[in-house]
């Protein structure tokens, strides 16, 4: 029973860690890096004038995914993808902080649907709109798909890592055409899944799923993150540096892979605070970090004060995220 309880704790830690990092970083978005030890709190404010403890687009978009995956038996089916696109489009109509790339893609997907005589967009409209945006601008490697991998890892917890990786890449492409975003999502999803299953942090556990040249590049990026600190990756609106900033924060908190540090509250809090102190896209980097460090440390490592404050669209609180995580991880 103990093992099951521990695993449930880590399952809940995925979505609650995501939300805790998101709400912690919300008040510091687009501010410069902070000094080590400078206080960080759930102060609210930021771009969306959020309340203290309120999560932002990162968690809200993940909730839409969690609901769609749960409704489709935990599979990233076409129906689930369409439900996500429609759910995001609905959310974006009233959200104060939709990412630039995501917002453009969702609007273009709705317009493609109308031109095709459909009242509402389907998954293929979003995929086409994401590719069009990439061709038009030459880039689409924003961090907006990496911030929402948490539900994919939970839905694919009991399936082979190859399937989890592929689903993460597929769901990334709903808004982000750039293959780098897909690779980052696949690697992060594999690491969250591994952390829930084993209680261990290993960001390299999905590298073997990439082509050797790509695996080598990502190995270098992971090593650079471990050698640096979050503020070294200040171009963190780009998916690669968001990935590196989040891992840098976790790596430092755990003693740079020495295996010495127990994965407890201190590690979780230090990792999330370090992610925020890295500056710029603070809520997203801390949300990404939170989904992985929360998976490893478990929900019980999140300070009760934070859990009590957490809330956000669509009218949910911490307990609801825990329930959603357990449902996703068990539901197939
Ligand atoms: Mg955000």
UniProtKB/TrEMBL annotation:
This is ADP-ribosylglycohydrolase. InterPro entries: ADP-ribosylglycohydrolase (IPR050792), Ribosyl_crysJ1 (IPR005502), Ribosyl_crysJ1_sf (IPR036705). Gene3D superfamilies: ADP-ribosylation/Crystallin J1 (1.10.4080.10). It comes from the Bacteria. Pfam families: ADP_ribosyl_GH. It comes from Glutamicibacter protophormiae.
